[in-house]
Amino acid sequence: MGRYSYGGKNEADDVKKIATSFLKKHGYFKGWLSGTITWTHGWSGNKSSVGISVSTLDNDNDGYLRINYTQTDRNTDEKKDFDYKIPLTTTPCRYGGKRYWFICPWYKNSVYCGKRVGTLYKDGDYFACRHCYNLTYSSRKQNRRYNLFPLFNVLTIEKKIDELHERIKRPYYAGRPTKRQRRLEMLYRQAGLSYQRYTKLK
Q1: Helices then strands (H, E): number in the chain?
Q2: Residue 106 has what DSSP assignment?
């Protein structure tokens, strides 16, 4: 579980997550590929991992992410196996190609989520979107003066990208990007520049 914040919400930065950007970077959207994602807990050094396979074959429509892992109950030491699929969907990119998204599979209060998101988080038994887990970004809790630092710029822009993605229903009209799509592309460029600045300071 992520640590609790003063506002009563866990922070998205402190829980396990899987992003479509990570899968794309490692070549998972090229047909079918399996692998393992491993996380190292900063304060303890303990490692945890999940097995994944991604299919974007034509007969699977837009495709899916399959996740499998074993989880141990901290109170009873009972082990439980998880194996489930998360649907993928796509939107066209301005200069050709397509961008992949997760469809959140979570049911919250017996209501199916189905949000199109770029990142899934694990703050319980399953991976789901940050809205279903009621997660917040740590950057929201920082003093405004920290926005001057590149790292917090990255976190702030990432939050804006996630929120704008969920509002875009039609990225292009008559072959041209909509106003929100242009705004989204600008945020991506800003995030890239800010991250480059941050890595130079490390």
Answers
A1: 3, 13
A2: -
